[in-house]
Specification:
Blueprint lengths: L26 H11 L7 E4 L3 E2 L5 E10 L2 E10 L5 E2 L6 E3 L5 E4 L10 E4 L5 E3 L9 H6 L10 E4 L6 E7 L4 H18 L3 E7 L9 H14 L1 H13 L9 H9 L8 H9 L4 H13 L7 E4 L2 E4 L4 H14 L11 H22 L1
Parallel strand pairs: 11-12
Antiparallel strand pairs: 1-3, 2-3, 3-4, 4-5, 6-7, 7-8, 8-9, 10-12, 11-13, 13-14
Helix pairs in contact: 4-5, 4-6, 4-7, 5-6
Length: 359
């Protein structure tokens, strides 16, 4: 579940049962308030752990666990001593900012620190990320992304390809399906080895109940053979509308057992049931958060973060610009002689059918 990262925003001002201290907070009332405040779907359950002093006078800190079916997440929660107010936020210690004369959070937290900078006299603050003109932002983004070694699912060009396109995706997301199918149909056909396509798992577990196990399923196929990961993934996207948490395993297994997938069904089932690729998926999710990905699909084109996907032609314009910037000419796709022959043959057949209809 996505919570606000802003240090100063109160996520709720719950009037809980009159409690003398935060340890006596009315948990059922808190859970009910959370459901209303964040509009959680039916079936989401909460569990608040032990509250401890936070280091800030009058403020306690604890861990709130949210669960939905087989998925769960932990979040830090701050509660005032009187039990009246709660804030869904990490607690950040202030240290020296990169901006002279300012203080900023030292700790990164789960999704990165809020970009708050406070003057040392505590009279002023601003919100925003400082940008260093001496640092290439695209290179800085790519430096945070794993692109080599085991656990990198890629196709098209190799590691030295002039363009690298990274796709952070959620297999339950309809927009991700549209983007992925367009890339699958057109990217390599258009650019061949000029573009390296890297796929990363980023299931939005707070709104998509089977996206995380789907990522586990694909990663288990990928673990045996890289091409199998792409095949199973495409099958899940194609069958997206008929998949639910109850039949996800069977649907994925059906794809695994498909023609030419070429992996062990038994090994895949063991991997999926034991969640052997959980760490693989979690690493991709943490990586996405480190570059502030918060929606799907999100593409990263040579280090440039591109949220959303409208159509392939729009993406093609950006890829062509990247190639041109490297002095690489983008040749128009010329049909091969065999293709021309086939088209002439098809035209004759079409003409014949048309003539028959007229006659």
């Amino acid at each position: 579940m996505k919570w606000s990262r802003t240090l100063w925003a109160l996520a709720g001002s719950a009037i809980l049962a009159s409690a003398a201290a935060a340890q006596d907070i009315d948990r059922p009332a808190l859970y009910k308030h959370l459901q209303k405040t964040f509009n959680t779907p039916p079936g989401v359950e909460f569990e608040l752990g032990e509250l401890k002093p936070s280091g800030v006078d009058g403020l306690f800190v604890g861990t709130l666990k949210s669960s939905f079916r087989s998925n769960s997440q932990s979040h830090q929660i701050l509660v005032t001593k009187d039990g009246r107010y709660y804030i869904m936020s990490d607690l950040y210690k202030l240290g020296e900012s990169t901006i002279p004369g300012m203080l900023a959070p030292e700790d990164k937290g789960e999704e990165g620190p809020p970009m708050v900078h406070v003057s040392k006299d505590l009279k002023y603050f601003f919100v925003g990320e400082p940008h260093d003109l001496k640092v290439d932002p695209a290179a800085a983004t790519l430096a945070k992304i794993k692109l080599k070694g085991e656990g990198v699912m890629s196709r098209g060009g190799g590691e030295t390809a002039p363009v690298t396109l990274i796709e952070y995706s959620d297999m339950e997301c309809p927009y991700c399906r549209n983007a992925h199918m367009a890339l699958d149909d057109k990217l390599e056909a258009t650019y061949g080895k000029k573009v390296r396509w890297v796929f990363k798992y980023f299931p939005l577990t707070s709104i998509h109940p089977w996206a995380y196990p789907a990522a586990i399923a694909v990663a288990c196929a990928e673990k045996q053979k890289a091409s199998a990961g792409w095949t199973v993934e495409r099958a899940i996207f194609q069958d997206q509308e008929s998949i639910n948490p109850g039949n996800l395993r069977d649907k994925a297994l059906e794809a695994v057992n498909g023609k030419d997938v070429g992996i062990s069904s038994a090994a895949w089932q063991t991997c999926f049931d034991k969640q052997e690729t959980k760490s693989r998926v979690d690493e991709d999710m943490a990586e996405a958060r480190s570059i502030r990905v918060n929606s799907t699909p999100t593409l990263v084109l040579n280090g440039r973060v591109v949220p959303g996907f409208r159509d392939f032609e729009g993406l093609k314009t950006m890829i062509d610009a990247e190639l041109a910037d490297k002095g690489i000419k983008v040749e128009p796709n010329e049909p091969k002689p065999a293709d021309l022959k086939d088209k002439k043959s098809d035209k004759k057949k079409s003409d014949k059918k048309s003539d028959t209809k007229k006659g």
